[in-house]
Amino acid sequence: KQWYQRRVRGARQLFRKIEQPMLPMFQVFQQYPGVLESDEAKKIIRSYNKVAKVLLEYEVVYHQAWLRQIDVIRSGLNSSLLVRHPDTQVLYVNFDPSILELVREVDCMERMGQTCTSYQMFLIVLYIFL
Fold first, then answer.
1. What whole-number distance in Å separates Cα of residue 55 and Cα of residue 49?
2. pLDDT in tens, 82-102
3. 111 in Cβ contact with 5 (< 8 Å)
4. Is the CB of residue 109 less than 8 Å from the CB of residue 5?
5. Cβ within 8 Å of residue 20, ≥6 positions away
6. pTM for the predicted model, two decimal places
7. How far is residue 37 from each of residues 11, 41, 42, 49, 118, measured CA to CA in Å?
């Protein structure tokens, strides 16, 4: 299980944790621009920017992987829902459990504000009816 939305949510939570102590500092930097010229302030801002960049890249990488996963599972939806066993002629439901997982992921990602395509919205509607 990939749980892309958990990874994206985790990256966002970490970003909020590093952003929270920086917000008052940004106000100080605006009021006293000379503070930015100190080596310590430059080091703090440089570290903050590096960590923020890594967290953003992490989120983007997992969001793109999630979109690729949607395409993979989407191709599976084109197969027959019922299949007959060649030897016994018994009907079986041909349902990939990863579809349910993806439907839940789409719902979570949509709640987190990620953009949703019409296909992803279809999966959300499917989730409501399951």
1. 10
2. 888 899 989 988 777 777 777
3. no
4. yes
5. none
6. 0.65
7. 30, 7, 7, 16, 49
